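Supplementary Methods, section 5.1.

A reviewer requested that the exact input to the structure prediction be made available. We therefore reproduce it here, unchanged from the version used in the analyses.
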Amino acid sequence: MQNKIVLVLVSALFAGAISLRAQSAAGGSPRFTLTATATAVSQYMFRGQRLGGPSFQPAVELASDHAVLGVWSNFPIKDAVPGTSDPEIDLYGSYIFDLNDVVSVVPGFTWYTYPDAPTDQGFYRSTIEPSLALNYTAPGLKLTPRIYYDFTLKGPTFEFTAFYALPLASLGSELDFTATWGSFLLKDASKGSEPQTKAWGDYWLVGVSAPFQVSSNGKVLVGLAYTEGRDAFLKQGSAGKSPNSLAVGRAVVTLSYSHTF
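The structure derived from this sequence is encoded token-by-token as follows.
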């Protein structure tokens, strides 16, 4: 079932990209880019949960004016959290539908895979999560409410992100400020659990980063963020709830290099 959903989503994304390419070809050269990124982070944090210590996160992304399709991965260097992301390899995609000059709708998906996850210990080796976002864009500002739904874990995640870019003309860069708040409720968080195990919680993040163009096709980004998971619990059936030990607060330092072809 998951594979069928992924194939439908990828096919729809490629159909949109092919349509866009045909339109672009009619009016000029299509604009497609391929970007490879190598990222190192001091902590791997995901929605307020610590899934690893220092990690290497390579990614490859194919993008047009409206469509994106990529592969992102995580390889812990130290303090790997068993069963969660050692490694993690995710396929993702999205397509932008412009409603006007400032508002757009963005359907997308992520197919999370964990090739070495021990399924006999309650871990999934893959989950599929479509999403739908609404972007409001003004000069230097972007506001994005988004809803996700994980078909494997059987639950939604609600998220709101605010982004603001402050130009630094003298340095040829900018300061990118990001703030995120989210909340999730998953009904089947543990594979094979009978009765099912629920997981829920909130999370937030504030961060700043600065990109530097080091060549015509190369860019370096440095960033610092703090993120925290709060009110996060697990509950199996009618048993009492227990705190989710992965939900913590951590500062995260990011250093990445990306090259566009």
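The longest strand covers residues 218-236. These observations are discussed further in the main text.
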